[in-house]
Amino acid sequence: MAKKTVFITGGTGNMGWAAVQEMLKHPNEINIKMLARKSPKNEEKLKDLMAKPNLKIVWGDLNDYDSILEGVTGADYVLHVGGMVSPTADWKPYKTQKTNIGAAQSICKAVLAQPNPDDIKVCYIGTVAETGDRNYPIHWGRCGDPIKISIYDHYAISKTVAERTFVESGIKNWVVMRQSGILYPNILKNMDPIMFHVPINGVLEWCTVEDSGRLMCNLVLEDEAGNLGSDFWNHFYNIGSGKEYRISNYEFECLLLGTLGLAGPEKLFEPNWFITKNFHGQFYADGDKLENYLHFRENLPIQDYFNRLADHVEFYFKIPRYLPKNLVAACAKPFMKKIASTPDFGTLDWVKTNNPERMSSYYGSLEEYNKIPSKWEDFEIIHFDKDNSAAEQFKLDHGYDESKPESELDIEDMKQAAKFRGGECLSETMVKGDMATKLKWKCGTCGAEFEASPALILLGALNVTFRKKNGTMTKLLKLTHSSLKFGIQTIQKKNIMFISLMTFSILTALSGTTLSTKHNNLYIKINHRFFGGLFFILQLKLKKLLLYFLRELYRMLILRNW
To answer: Domain spanning 4-179+210-239+287-298: which superfamily?
Structure first.
């Protein structure tokens, strides 16, 4: 194969860094142009890479068009991995929208400004969070399922708009890959209230950071080998590491805590600290499609993978392995409770203040919350069938004959899909199999008319719009009824309620009414960066907590509770 130039964003992040490391293994096939924000941290991280003959660092920023243009110029492939992610996206919604959407627009503009735009292939990393609340029994998903963004999920909003930007840009060869949760060594350090924003009986098909890196590299290698044709490009895919990595959130907590030598979740948390709804976890009924194209999975047993993660953490994370589990749990639980009680973002704070918007979104109501058992012995743990064959009974109907090849889809299929989803296809003709040319549609809720490609509506199940004013994005990111109702088959047939709640949430959140600026200061950094009771003692209220530690040690010695 001829040597190709790849421009990658987000190269200093988890997925991007893994992709760069994989591509560096192929110096004869790939030249890398890597966008990196100039900072002392990045300069230190990248100093050993600067001498690599097949890597060039483009110092710049996702918000700077000129640096993006420099990276795109001369590139054969653009891998857009970078962006702001949760939990930072929750604290800084305005910056998240500006960065994630603005970068998508800049990349598309830069690609189309090249003398050979049709020769440049673009991969955009989206998120599975776009499909929103996915609780049992709707715990299997696939591309084409309704976009149903969870309330308060600023990250998913920005990624959905960015996704549309690429699909409707006019770029000839694009692909959208929706990333799941990524397993990487530093996940063991994530001490943030977001850890409780998952249902304990929810699920997720995780993807390892190593698999994610191979995915990006193999996209280039397989395409240059001639193995990726039109059936691959201009489509949407879910990224996951397969059956072995389909686990419940309860199983995840057991694996994570066990890896660190800690007691199980029953010792560190209470079941009513976790939300019960409004989260996007799912297993992927179509996850193997991407593996069949790109062959990126290591297929390492998940317990072995977590053991490997533990080998790469700092030494102080290994200390609990050598201490009595009950002792560590007694010290760590107050720390965990403090995280869950974080003002504005902690689940226990919502309960304490009876925050109506948060309680409605994540539990249904305070009354529903009060029904959750506070003791693990009264809480039912759900066990899930993780085999692909189990997905068949849970697949959502997409409203048209999916057995037909895409090349045979016509205007009648569009009208059928529109009617099924509560809207209307206003166009009377289309070229059979043309998934790129925009058609006219009508929202079944508000009556708004809009244009969108069949690929966006049927394959991506989305149509998100935003407004500009005076050359800048307004604070209000408009997810219209056209965006939400049309192109959407609801899971629970509560379209109007969902649209109303979601629109209200987005407008209030993006106008700053539900956020506190305290989360941008040292408060967060101090309270949520350190793990475990031992570090809590060292970092906060040393004298008081040391006395607490000694008291608990004495209690356990007396009770022989080891």
So the answer is: NAD(P)-binding Rossmann-like Domain (3.40.50.720)
